[in-house]
Amino acid sequence: MTTQRRGGVPRRAVLTAAVTTAAAAVVRAQAPAAPASPVSTPLVDAPQADGTTLTVERRGDIVLIGINRAAVHNRLDGATRRRLGQVLYAYEHDPSLRAAILFGHGERFSRGIDVDAAQATLQSGQPAADATGTIDILGKATPPPGKPMVCVVHGDTWNLGHEIYLACDVRIAAGNTDFGQ
């Protein structure tokens, strides 16, 4: 097995850069929001504004994906999970990206599924959303991403949040992480 990736960049160098960026992302997620630096180029339009449940920020050949539902402990509702699938699909099909880092904004990574939102969706009788153009991070509905996924967790990382953590290629947990089940 070769350690060289396309373009001649060693895989270890890419993963080292991803881990370094992941550590910075955890610090940034726990700090007060600051204005975006002019160096960052958004992969897609996902500003950190009210109502934005998933942030996406490109830094060179790495993309930072942040769960941004801190008011409900970063629990994932159907819309946020679909958006995550769309972002992962775009990441997988962008040849200029080499790694993705998933993290949670606020005091915790994720307490799992948003049960109230899921119940409301089931009771509405709406059909499940079309999975075209998405990738299921858990690999149940679609194959998981083929490119490296780094998951950086802190605080509460429960249920679905823990499953997402385990599904990633590289896992980093802060000292205060609670994998409550």
Q: Can you describe what's shown?
A:
- This protein is globular.
- The protein contains four helices and five strands, in the order αββαβαβαβ.
- Strands 1-2-3-4-5 form a five-stranded mixed sheet, with helices on both faces.
- With 181 residues, the protein is an alpha/beta fold.
- The relative contact order is 0.17.
- The model is unreliable at 34-46 (pLDDT under 50).
Order of helices and strands: HEEHEHEHE
Main sheet properties: 5 strands, mixed
Mean pLDDT: 80
Kindly provide the radius of gyration, computed on alpha-carbon positions and rounded to a whole number of angstroms. 16 Å
What form results from the Cα inertia axes?
Answer: globular
Brief rundown of the structure:
With 181 residues, the chain is of the alpha/beta class. 30% of the residues lie in helices and 15% in strands.
Outline the secondary-structure elements.
Blueprint: H1 11-30, E1 54-59, E2 62-67, H2 78-92, E3 99-104, H3 115-124, E4 149-153, H4 159-167, E5 170-173
Parallel strand pairs: 2-3, 3-4, 4-5
Antiparallel strand pairs: 1-2
